[in-house]
Amino acid sequence: MPLIYETIITSLDANGQPHIAPFGIREEQGLVLIAPFRPSASLDNLLHHRAAVVNLTDDVRVFAGVLTGRREWPLKPAQKMQGVVLESALAHRELELVEIREHEVRPELLFRVVHEVQHQPFRGFNRAQAAVIELAVLVSRLHMLPMEKIDAEIAYLNIAIEKTAGERELQAWQWLIECIENHKAATDSGNMA
Ligand SMILES: Cc1cc2nc3c(=O)[nH]c(=O)nc-3n(C[C@H](O)[C@H](O)[C@H](O)COP(=O)(O)O)c2cc1C
């Protein structure tokens, strides 16, 4: 199995407007591999500008926020290319697209690292942050998963939240739980109609 890091990819649309989305990235022979499922605004942007920024952040509110409609996060300009960097990034990498492996469902985009900056030190692993990322992944697949699986995962992941969360992690967790509750309510009322 490949080693995957969960990151925030920032890109620009055709009009230069920033777009933020969580993506798992892999490394392959020194290149960064991003594999977006179609359709994806990020995919369109990455193909249009042939550029992306990988942001490594421990502010899990960005992951949970983007998935729950909170897309306004502080950004600053990239240093060596046209693009934007998350203010909260501990580190970022500026990327240039060098290869596309076409696929109907999930193309693979390979990027060369043009520039890399360390902004803040890594502070260590936090279980609540990992729990938020896990729940965020489930929320991004909410329409495909049975609700019993989601409820069981929440019960387990909540242990890490209760034991190790700070304010940012609690906020992020709450946004995801609200989103799941809304999805449940919408599904239930759909079933009753
Ligand atoms: C931690 C995490 C990792 C994700 N990784 C991927 C990925 O590798 N490919 C993908 O298509 N979507 C991934 N997603 C879901 C996308 O972030 C989500 O669908 C997003 O809206 C991308 O669509 P957009 O480019 O249209 O904004 C991930 C979500 C999370 C929370």
Task: Describe this protein with a few key phrases.
193 residues, alpha+beta, Pnp Oxidase, Chain A, Methane Monooxygenase Hydroxylase, Chain G, domain 1, 6-stranded antiparallel beta barrel, two-stranded antiparallel ribbon, 5 helices, 30% strand, globular, binds flavin mononucleotide
User: What shape does the CA trace take?
Assistant: globular
CATH H-level superfamily of the largest domain? Electron Transport, Fmn-binding Protein, Chain A
Task: Tell me the strand percentage band.
Answer: 25-35%
Give the tally of β-strands. 8
Instruction: Enumerate the distinct ligands.
Output: flavin mononucleotide
Backbone structural class = alpha+beta
Global Rg:
17 Å
Tally of discrete structural domains = 2
Strand order of the largest sheet: 1-2-3-8-7-4
Largest sheet report: 6 strands, antiparallel, barrel
Order of helices and strands: EEEHEHEEEEHHH
Distance separating the two termini:
44 Å
CATH hierarchy: architecture of the largest domain: Roll
* Fraction of helical residues: 25-40%
CATH topology of the largest domain: Pnp Oxidase, Chain A
What order do the helices and strands come in, and which of them pair?
Blueprint: E1 5-12, E2 18-28, E3 31-34, H1 41-49, E4 51-56, H2 61-67, E5 75-77, E6 84-86, E7 91-101, E8 108-118, H3 127-140, H4 147-164, H5 167-192
Antiparallel strand pairs: 1-2, 1-4, 2-3, 3-8, 4-7, 5-6, 7-8
